[in-house]
């Protein structure tokens, strides 16, 4: 087990080195750049040159790359071009918002997805099952920004049930401990803040959860149907075991394996979806930060750090998925 | 009174948009307490479907089961699913063909044996595991205490089949159904498993229904043999009679097909021509007629009835292989 983790950590380092290089050159190959973005079209050549030199972009690209790598290795991601703040500060301010949103979405997706998929499989071929197939198809196909604006228009404009945007009501007297507003409220016993934060979280979390939820329902359904056809389920039936025992002990555990894999793979989709969801609900997280950093100034240092962060999250989640495999399936443990 | 009395059992598979297929077509046979009865036939003759129908393990949809399966005083086909669940594993045990896929890969062996004891004997987990250890020991699994915690993939094929036997016999059922229990195993292991089955069945007085295509298995184990063809019993006889004087041309062909050591090398192996799918529907004559060497006009036209033989067996043939006249 330790060897597996070690091997995966080495893979993580290799991936990060490759990704750092790719991101560095990819960003710089895009048309435009921080200088154009900051100074606008009517800047004089002199000011342009001054700023270029001040930011260090007059150096040969390999020199720039070398300096970047050196800084990253020492944990220094530089300062934001737009605001001048250290990149780590900018990111750590937005990080909790996105994690809060993503965790809420994944809880919805798993919490509803596995039971619904299981129920669909049990009623295979009947109305409920067919309805599930159609609804999940819509769920997978619907664009996030469309669903986001649809829900927002419906439930915050036409019927005022949920707040239209933000993470917490302006003027709410909440204490910031971890940056996770729901958690903070619980920690400081400001339960009104927790309730308010949860209220704000509902629509964005539903929007972000839709696609993973639909996929998890489908995978669970297919996986349960596969397991029900297995010989060992027939053996369990031949033992005369109660239906509940067969379901809990024999079906579910085996059916979860593909579902767990899917959850890991959905992390990537979740990160991408967060960008759109945060835009729709003006949710001040990493997604908002990434769009602002691209459109408002081509903020190279922030963008580089954000992309690396996304990669680390993706790889770590998938490592956890692999480890949970070993818990569920004894056949994996031996290798 | 027989322990198991299967009367006119039929299983018809019905799929939307497809012609109904009769897999088992009015099968009759009985099993006396402690007796070992063979169901023999090629792939597709309906022997496995028969066993699943007896156990109530056929898929709930897409098939129609009719007839009677009397176990002691009860018709198993008339029981509600819950009542049948109470009997499966307790009164009737079953062993399947592929021991690897028949064991749950993610559960330790001990639990898979213990759960049937918990279910039917109301034992605690701890007591059930203790008994499971004894059962594994009884079926000849070495170091049973350690094996309790192991998973199916850590056992050899023979061990797995022994474990399945332990599960099926855990609650001391009065009837054991073994569906091709040795087919997936090496020849050397096959013999061990058969010897074990024979020994356990004799010790406990459990009746055994042995489903197989292997006449060697029948020869070593069965008291009475039912030969199935295309969903019907075509011949029934005591083991000794069947091997000494097979009457049905199909049985005769099966026995001829067994390779023998005492004929010349280079001689061709006997084979029954065609396959089990080259048959005619039973209502239009004998299903085996298209493949039969002794076919005559009487074979075609109407269903050939199963008629008792003077030796206490039964035969479904208009032109059976002649018996040697006793001197």
TrEMBL record, chain A:
<feature type="transmembrane region" description="Helical">
    <location>
        <begin position="133"/>
        <end position="151"/>
    </location>
</feature>
<keyword id="KW-1133">Transmembrane helix</keyword>
<feature type="domain" description="ABC transmembrane type-1">
    <location>
        <begin position="95"/>
        <end position="321"/>
    </location>
</feature>
<feature type="transmembrane region" description="Helical">
    <location>
        <begin position="305"/>
        <end position="328"/>
    </location>
</feature>
<keyword id="KW-0812">Transmembrane</keyword>
<feature type="transmembrane region" description="Helical">
    <location>
        <begin position="255"/>
        <end position="276"/>
    </location>
</feature>
<dbReference type="Pfam" id="PF00528">
    <property type="entry name" value="BPD_transp_1"/>
</dbReference>
<comment type="similarity">
    <text>Belongs to the binding-protein-dependent transport system permease family.</text>
</comment>
<keyword id="KW-0813">Transport</keyword>
<feature type="transmembrane region" description="Helical">
    <location>
        <begin position="9"/>
        <end position="27"/>
    </location>
</feature>
<dbReference type="Pfam" id="PF19300">
    <property type="entry name" value="BPD_transp_1_N"/>
</dbReference>
<dbReference type="GO" id="GO:0005886">
    <property type="term" value="C:plasma membrane"/>
</dbReference>
<feature type="transmembrane region" description="Helical">
    <location>
        <begin position="197"/>
        <end position="217"/>
    </location>
</feature>
<feature type="transmembrane region" description="Helical">
    <location>
        <begin position="101"/>
        <end position="121"/>
    </location>
</feature>
<dbReference type="InterPro" id="IPR035906">
    <property type="entry name" value="MetI-like_sf"/>
</dbReference>
<protein>
    <submittedName>
        <fullName>Peptide ABC transporter permease</fullName>
    </submittedName>
</protein>
<dbReference type="InterPro" id="IPR000515">
    <property type="entry name" value="MetI-like"/>
</dbReference>
<keyword id="KW-1003">Cell membrane</keyword>
<dbReference type="GO" id="GO:0055085">
    <property type="term" value="P:transmembrane transport"/>
</dbReference>
<dbReference type="InterPro" id="IPR045621">
    <property type="entry name" value="BPD_transp_1_N"/>
</dbReference>
<keyword id="KW-0472">Membrane</keyword>
UniProtKB/TrEMBL annotation, chain B:
<dbReference type="GO" id="GO:0016887">
    <property type="term" value="F:ATP hydrolysis activity"/>
</dbReference>
<keyword id="KW-0547">Nucleotide-binding</keyword>
<dbReference type="GO" id="GO:0005886">
    <property type="term" value="C:plasma membrane"/>
</dbReference>
<dbReference type="InterPro" id="IPR003593">
    <property type="entry name" value="AAA+_ATPase"/>
</dbReference>
<dbReference type="InterPro" id="IPR003439">
    <property type="entry name" value="ABC_transporter-like_ATP-bd"/>
</dbReference>
<keyword id="KW-0067">ATP-binding</keyword>
<comment type="similarity">
    <text>Belongs to the ABC transporter superfamily.</text>
</comment>
<dbReference type="Pfam" id="PF00005">
    <property type="entry name" value="ABC_tran"/>
</dbReference>
<dbReference type="InterPro" id="IPR027417">
    <property type="entry name" value="P-loop_NTPase"/>
</dbReference>
<dbReference type="Pfam" id="PF08352">
    <property type="entry name" value="oligo_HPY"/>
</dbReference>
<dbReference type="InterPro" id="IPR017871">
    <property type="entry name" value="ABC_transporter-like_CS"/>
</dbReference>
<keyword id="KW-0813">Transport</keyword>
<keyword id="KW-1003">Cell membrane</keyword>
<dbReference type="GO" id="GO:0005524">
    <property type="term" value="F:ATP binding"/>
</dbReference>
<feature type="domain" description="ABC transporter">
    <location>
        <begin position="6"/>
        <end position="255"/>
    </location>
</feature>
<keyword id="KW-0472">Membrane</keyword>
<dbReference type="GO" id="GO:0015833">
    <property type="term" value="P:peptide transport"/>
</dbReference>
<dbReference type="InterPro" id="IPR013563">
    <property type="entry name" value="Oligopep_ABC_C"/>
</dbReference>
<dbReference type="InterPro" id="IPR050388">
    <property type="entry name" value="ABC_Ni/Peptide_Import"/>
</dbReference>
<protein>
    <submittedName>
        <fullName>Dipeptide/oligopeptide/nickel ABC transporter ATP-binding protein</fullName>
    </submittedName>
</protein>
């Amino acid at each position: 087990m330790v060897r597996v983790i070690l091997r995966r950590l080495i893979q993580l380092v290799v991936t990060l080195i490759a990704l750092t290089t790719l991101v560095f050159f990819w960003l710089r190959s895009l048309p435009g750049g921080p200088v154009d973005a900051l100074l606008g079209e009517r800047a004089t050549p002199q000011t342009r040159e001054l700023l270029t030199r001040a930011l260090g972009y007059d150096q040969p690209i390999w020199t720039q790359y070398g300096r970047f790598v050196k800084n990253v290795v020492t944990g220094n991601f530089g300062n934001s071009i737009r605001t001048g703040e250290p990149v780590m500060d900018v990111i750590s301010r937005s990080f909790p918002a996105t994690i809060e949103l993503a965790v809420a979405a994944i809880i919805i997706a798993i919490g509803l997805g596995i039971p619904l998929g299981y129920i669909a499989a049990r009623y295979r071929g009947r109305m409920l099952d067919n309805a599930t197939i159609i609804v999940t198809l819509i769920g997978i196909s619907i664009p996030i920004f469309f669903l986001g604006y649809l829900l927002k228009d419906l439930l915050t404009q036409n019927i005022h049930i949920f707040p239209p945007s933000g993470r917490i009501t302006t003027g709410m007297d909440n204490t910031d401990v971890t940056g996770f507003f729901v958690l903070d409220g619980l920690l400081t016993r400001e339960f009104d803040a927790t309730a308010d934060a949860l209220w704000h979280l509902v629509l964005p979390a539903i929007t972000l959860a839709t696609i993973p939820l639909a996929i998890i329902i489908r995978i669970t359904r297919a996986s349960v149907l596969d397991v029900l056809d297995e010989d060992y389920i027939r053996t369990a039936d031949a033992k005369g075991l109660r239906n509940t025992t067969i379901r809990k002990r024999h079906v579910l555990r085996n059916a979860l394996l593909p579902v767990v894999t899917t959850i890991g793979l959905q992390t990537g989709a979740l990160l991408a979806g967060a960008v759109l969801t945060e835009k729709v609900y003006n949710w001040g997280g990493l997604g908002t930060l990434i769009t602002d950093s691209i459109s408002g100034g081509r903020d190279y240092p922030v963008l580089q750090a954000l992309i690396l962060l996304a990669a680390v999250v993706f790889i770590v989640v998938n490592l956890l998925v692999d480890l949970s495999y070993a818990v569920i399936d004894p056949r994996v443990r031996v290798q | 009174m027989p322990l198991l009395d299967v009367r006119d059992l039929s299983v018809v598979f019905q799929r939307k948009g497809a012609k109904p297929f009769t897999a088992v077509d009015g099968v009759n046979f009985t099993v006396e307490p402690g007796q070992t009865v063979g169901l023999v036939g090629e792939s597709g003759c309906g022997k496995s479907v028969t066993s699943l129908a007896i156990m109530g393990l056929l898929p709930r949809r897409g098939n129609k089961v009719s007839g009677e399966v009397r176990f002691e005083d009860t018709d198993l086909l008339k029981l509600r699913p819950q009542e049948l669940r109470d009997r499966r594993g307790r009164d009737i045990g079953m062993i399947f063909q592929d021991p690897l896929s028949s064991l749950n890969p993610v559960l330790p062996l001990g639990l898979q044996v213990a759960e049937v004891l918990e279910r039917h004997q109301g034992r605690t987990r701890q007591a059930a595991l203790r008994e499971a250890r004894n059962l594994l020991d009884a079926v000849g699994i070495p170091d049973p205490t350690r094996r309790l915690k192991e998973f199916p993939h850590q056992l050899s094929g023979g061990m797995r089949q022994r474990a399945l036997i332990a599960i099926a016999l855990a609650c001391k059922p009065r009837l054991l159904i073994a569906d091709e229990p040795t087919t997936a195993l090496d020849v050397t292991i096959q013999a061990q498993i058969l010897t074990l089955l024979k020994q356990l069945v004799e010790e406990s007085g459990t009746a055994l229904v042995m489903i197989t295509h292997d006449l060697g298995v029948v020869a070593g184990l069965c008291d009475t043999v039912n030969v199935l063809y295309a969903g019907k019993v075509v011949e029934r006889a005591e083991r000794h009679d069947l091997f000494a004087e097979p009457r049905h041309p199909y049985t005769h062909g099966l026995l001829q097909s067994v390779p023998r050591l005492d004929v010349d090398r280079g001689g061709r192996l006997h084979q029954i021509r065609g396959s089990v799918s080259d048959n005619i529907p039973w209502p239009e004559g004998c299903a085996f007629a298209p493949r039969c060497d002794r076919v005559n006009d009487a074979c075609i036209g109407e269903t050939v009835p199963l008629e008792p033989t003077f030796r206490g067996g039964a035969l479904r043939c208009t032109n059976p292989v002649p018996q040697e006249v006793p001197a």
